[in-house]
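User: For a benchmark we're assembling, each entry needs the component sequences followed by a predicted structure for the full assembly. Here are entry 17's components. Please fill in the structure.
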Amino acid sequence: MNDRPPSATPPETKLWGGRFRDSVDPEIHRFTASLPFDRRLARADLLGSLAHARMLLEQGIVDPPAAGPILDGLAGILAELESGRLAVDGADEDVHSWIERQLAERIGEAAGRLHTARSRNDQTGLALRLYTRERLAGLVRLAATLAEDLAARAGDHLETFLPGYTHQQRGQPVSLSHHLLAHAWSLLADARRFRTAHETAGVSPLGAGALAGSPHPVSPARVAELLGLPGVFANSLHAVADRDYAAEAAFACALCLVHLSRWASEVVLWTSSEVGFARLSDRVAKGSSLMPQKKNPEPAEILRGKSGRVLGDLQALLVVLKGLPLAYNSDLQEDKEALFDALDTAEGCLTVSRPLLAGLAFDVTRMGQALTGGYLTATALADLLVGAGVPFREAHGRAGRVVLAAEERNCELWELPESVLGELCPELPAGARERLLPEAAARSHRSPGGPAPERVVEQLAAAREAIAAELAWVDGLPEPPLRRALRDGTITADRLA
Amino acid sequence: MNDRPPSATPPETKLWGGRFRDSVDPEIHRFTASLPFDRRLARADLLGSLAHARMLLEQGIVDPPAAGPILDGLAGILAELESGRLAVDGADEDVHSWIERQLAERIGEAAGRLHTARSRNDQTGLALRLYTRERLAGLVRLAATLAEDLAARAGDHLETFLPGYTHQQRGQPVSLSHHLLAHAWSLLADARRFRTAHETAGVSPLGAGALAGSPHPVSPARVAELLGLPGVFANSLHAVADRDYAAEAAFACALCLVHLSRWASEVVLWTSSEVGFARLSDRVAKGSSLMPQKKNPEPAEILRGKSGRVLGDLQALLVVLKGLPLAYNSDLQEDKEALFDALDTAEGCLTVSRPLLAGLAFDVTRMGQALTGGYLTATALADLLVGAGVPFREAHGRAGRVVLAAEERNCELWELPESVLGELCPELPAGARERLLPEAAARSHRSPGGPAPERVVEQLAAAREAIAAELAWVDGLPEPPLRRALRDGTITADRLA
Amino acid sequence: MNDRPPSATPPETKLWGGRFRDSVDPEIHRFTASLPFDRRLARADLLGSLAHARMLLEQGIVDPPAAGPILDGLAGILAELESGRLAVDGADEDVHSWIERQLAERIGEAAGRLHTARSRNDQTGLALRLYTRERLAGLVRLAATLAEDLAARAGDHLETFLPGYTHQQRGQPVSLSHHLLAHAWSLLADARRFRTAHETAGVSPLGAGALAGSPHPVSPARVAELLGLPGVFANSLHAVADRDYAAEAAFACALCLVHLSRWASEVVLWTSSEVGFARLSDRVAKGSSLMPQKKNPEPAEILRGKSGRVLGDLQALLVVLKGLPLAYNSDLQEDKEALFDALDTAEGCLTVSRPLLAGLAFDVTRMGQALTGGYLTATALADLLVGAGVPFREAHGRAGRVVLAAEERNCELWELPESVLGELCPELPAGARERLLPEAAARSHRSPGGPAPERVVEQLAAAREAIAAELAWVDGLPEPPLRRALRDGTITADRLA
Amino acid sequence: MNDRPPSATPPETKLWGGRFRDSVDPEIHRFTASLPFDRRLARADLLGSLAHARMLLEQGIVDPPAAGPILDGLAGILAELESGRLAVDGADEDVHSWIERQLAERIGEAAGRLHTARSRNDQTGLALRLYTRERLAGLVRLAATLAEDLAARAGDHLETFLPGYTHQQRGQPVSLSHHLLAHAWSLLADARRFRTAHETAGVSPLGAGALAGSPHPVSPARVAELLGLPGVFANSLHAVADRDYAAEAAFACALCLVHLSRWASEVVLWTSSEVGFARLSDRVAKGSSLMPQKKNPEPAEILRGKSGRVLGDLQALLVVLKGLPLAYNSDLQEDKEALFDALDTAEGCLTVSRPLLAGLAFDVTRMGQALTGGYLTATALADLLVGAGVPFREAHGRAGRVVLAAEERNCELWELPESVLGELCPELPAGARERLLPEAAARSHRSPGGPAPERVVEQLAAAREAIAAELAWVDGLPEPPLRRALRDGTITADRLA
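Assistant: Structure for entry 17:
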């Protein structure tokens, strides 16, 4: 004998209750309800619904007497939300139900025409894409602004020299400008990736319905146009199943956090007693509850740690997508929190990096002291030999032996007696010793992209240009026609500009 | 010239403000404050603080006139929190500061003696361990209880037969009991892992101080005893740096979610039109906002998707730990949200699986129908040939050819004419055809751990015993002496039981 | 007293031996040697070295008598490698050392001039970028070709109808063409991401040296031009520290594998007895060692499983990068195997998907049968009501009740008596019942991107155009000047075209 | 019309060819063949097969005339493999097919009886479990041995003091012994996790068949006993679907690598010019191809980087398992490479850590110098005030002000004039200044688990005991009866000991 399902209780009021005779178990409702986290999509969903309603009106699918109240009602809800007079709350299963309920409470039965020719599957995709784009544009600005801050600091230190490191060992002298700009270029690459993800997200899925489009004469292109989205879905099944934009956005956040973790690691190192290249102002450090002398670079440590979180978010999102058959599956509901956390964390970390950088006072004295003691110009010596015709391999070996000689004498390369240097490296031109001073070596590295001040001046100009281009991109994002109509109060007009 | 840090503003009141002249930047405060998420450690931290204060008293580090108000004050805060009269809220940087502030507001300056001989580094470790253990014990119970539900359903279906699948292809007949118990064993393994992680977390770090212990005559062992923790740290540096327990807990959650994702996948499959082995009651299904006929297994899909989240949490935690030098680093503050999310998700998913299972009505008719058409007893045929002395490889090949013959005739193996069967398999004993009926084949698989009803009866008994042992373990967890003293009102007594 | 390092043994011959007095521990050598995996960079590294040598010649850094043998020697090694006469093998610590040793064996001491003004840090970055670009171009072709195969199959099935699924439940009727093209669009997005990563990798780091450029008059732009790389590094520290291109490539592979896992999941489902929408030819299925009747979709299962591997590779890469300070650190050596595995797996999986798809025979009869029994046209009924003026919410509820009525009668929607339909839905126009037939419903979904055959014809054309554009991009990749010179034998000429 | 599969070609010889009329596509064969990586299971699979054959003999399922040659044949193959006379190679699809082919070539048709009552599903599970256990036992030994090395070094430095760090800032003085032992305790926890995973893997799945056991009178318990496995599967479906042991093993490896990454990070830091607490011998460092003076801690950097790889392996494994329905699916074939890589990497990293540690010469002079300049004993001052009756919070604040006073005077705390100290801290007892010397402070931290030498002596003894217990566990692993029988040549005897 087949099992019986548990006995029936009165059905609830849901968007989809028609064929259901029993209400949802409260535990199940709690588990499946997305309102606690998708409420933040309310604005985006209202914009999407306005565009949908406007399209239904323009295409004659809903006639003006019904469309007018819908448009006005949605615009009213949006205005109240944006002004803070209304908050998204309640027992609704998701933000879409919440909005439809709000609308019905305001305009009555006509609200029931709004969902014509769409499903929550295409609707939620649209809202998530609009929301993600807005956040990504914000991240472009933040990444570029942090790069700008770095460039500004770099501008002050074209002639501040310090060791450049590889393997956390002193390598060759570079300038602080050069060093700071290295981080700026990573941030500019992040800005580019945020823009690319913004473009990926710019495809409207509305009109895909649940998975199979519609028999009504909908115009997905018009919806996209109203919302300022440059593209329209090509395939309704793909449109509701696709989360590539979410994965791209999360990946861009993850790589950005990796970059910040590298910089944060450096801040921790540089502010240690041992390195001492920078001090943190009291405004960006924390003390110890036990050790009274401590001044800890907590913001930098937490910044470094946050990378784990976003790597986890990226993984979460990809795992959710793994193995899902077409078209929509509710697993996709789990895309949101991972994506939101990645966006929030990237935003929070980029934001906090600005005061952290501002609170970092560089100790150029310590930097200068660190230029000695590590034989940082051994390569410069080898290069001088190369200039004198010695093959590089041979020059490298000889410079190594000079280092040993200096180690034995416990002196710097430029302090070695001429005789010793001359014996090991007879090819060296006169005046070679001065060229082994760290600053001289840094200044001599005039190759493109190198640390010589004149090269860094060029680099700084290039970075500033790239930063300006990113900021101009954000500033130049056009206002969507729908937003304009809302501002102008023409949302129910016959024609929109 | 060295950079100057930004100009000074009046210092704030912090636990560590002594050497600071300037207050923390608000952005930095927001970024580094952990109260929004570590507030859930309030109860655990209060218990830890009570044990610490009691130890300070017993060891004579704090004398009774000071210790009494501290103990009473902390007990009062705990009581108010547990009764819901007090909520953790405010601008404090963490839950520890919040508690110390609460205490100071109640008992004044004496509160300042509580933090003697400890640091937030060992304090937070203790609170997190206590909290994690409590949650893990809850997960043992939930996993065992879900296994119990599965066993209960299994008890009803010892003689319900259905295809067992490999590669999502029908393989050999098994019983529904056998199938359901397979999931129960996974959950029992999860319960075991939760217990192991509980044991790992059972080492008290209090007394490690910031990293180097203390000059005061503290007794870490007494603190552990009061809190019912079986172990004490061996090395103070390790104690504050160690997060193995968090990683083990997150891993146990991740593997549990993987198991639930496998079961959830099956629920989705089984409730599809195509498989139809089960139907979902209205109480655990959801409808479509567009398609009126739909009944979607959303809870099962979300359950499957949640695995991504916990895999992400585990990764986040491990990435945070990567590369951190000894001893404490603030990156470790980022352990909490990942761990909390893993614990919450495991709890939520195990909890919701119970009504989901209860809402699953098995369709034994469809199961029975699925036993035909897939030549599920081809192996049984091969085994009969083996019994008649044919080497297995040869028997396997012959059975394959019999399958082809049946396919050509479009009939079941047991419907093949005796002549055909006899020609291909002359060794077959009389009556072989009946033994090719699916149910007969399932019943004949009497090997240990196999699907024959008498074996499953044994297995069910073993599972129930294992479940009972897990539940007994949870029920048998002793009440810590400190809790008893709080209940008895003897927290400031000379001697505790 | 300070510790003493272990006693000295004779030094080895390494590229960097000058200041070392003792040889490397064999265990350490084994652990740090990268030749076993970076050998696959040999061709790319030779091309990079040729470009470097050519630039050194053109810039007058190495004079023609030395540069000539170097160029000829490298060209000779490359030719032997490409023809298979030479294999990369030996005890060298990396492929760069191997090549330099090969060169020295051929041309003697002059080989020592090749490494002038470069380091392994910029050299290995260049080789990895060249290699990655070559592989990514291959992946663009493979993804587009698989999309082409899908489009070709789609072209045969414009009028083959089957259920479209959401939540693995039958939703609305679609065509097989439409369904297959959904996968094609995902692959086209993958192709785009491979192209973007190709562009990201197209920045030459050569000339960055170890981290600080060079005092020699090198021309990084000329090296890039010779190799056909569109960009040049801006900052020497960033150039050697940056692995964004590797992460982007791995991410593109990961998302591609996620897409393939979704398709593979579908293949497993469709070839199950229960769904039966497709059968696998013997050429792409496997049998069971025990169960003679089995025909398992192993290639599809493995394809699905491979997604785990590439998600792991992506994480591995990001974790390696986490927290590394500037500039080069040897952790970066660990970028290679993860990246290689991601590229190999993506290539292998895209490659095998073609015969797998070819071996898939669709069972259109089973597809047609599945159109009944699931009330797939309940939405069509609601849409008809909407067309007759009923608000959608009301129409949805009514259609739900019609479904219940049909369930009670155990009949299809279009089989319901006119009277029943008329009573529940009096607004329905005449002839509505025929429009509830699944095929009619699919044909009526004429919205853009929908399943109606005329829409899919348009979509197919768009997909083919997009595919052709991807393939044209790969075919149109220009031959780098260096390659041309090698082909023309003008590598040592005064001027290159 | 239904599609046709591609045209037929002659069938291949496979273990499962009976019902197949066409051979496998070569691309598909390459993609699905596991021999290239599962060949390393050959020994384990032979042991499993020997136990299976022995059980078939003892249970009378295969009679002595057939069982004898099988046992002798398998023993012969094993002996040849172990002596290196035979290598696993060829075009077989997996190691199981390779072994069965080897056996058939030696003993002919009787080989066909070996596969009676088993499937590759239970067979491969058994081999993987045996293999994993062997590797895990090896990892227990390696982890304990590295801990032993650390303990040995710790034994030399009970009275070597250096700063203990939190937040990479100098915190309080500790001893080098104490510091080194912190790492040892992490390794001991790893050893414990390897043992736990070893136990999890100690459940024999043989006898589960493909998924449903067997009609033959097999004895899974006897197979387990012969192989020295303590447990037997409870449910045949679970037995072939379960990969918890692989996940646990991978997790234990991942956490071990996280620990090693923390130590490796420290090695990189300590050998930097800035910290200088240790120098690397030439045997464990590497030079630069460009910079002659460099001595890079490459092994430590790579060690740190390897953590990414194993975190990726763990994720890969968990992702493979996500969402798989019961029972066996070929996705599980993808468990192997991730697990193997995790085991190999953990083994390689633990192995190389020993010479790396041996090559690390501590510079106790630098350590001593680092004890000054960071006000490491500010906490000691606060503790002295607490001892004099000042509440800790007050004492902490006062000590902070003393630090500021010392900073202003640019002197150490113990160098402050008595008058200054007395003014700020009138409660301080006489002789307090000496107790502010770093070494005195470290010696005064006599709390359990603290840095005072007498405490570290106890700790060292405890660590050595724990290490000895781990090593004793490995040494005490009993030889399985089957191994003994092979050694004694009694594998075909009537009775085994």
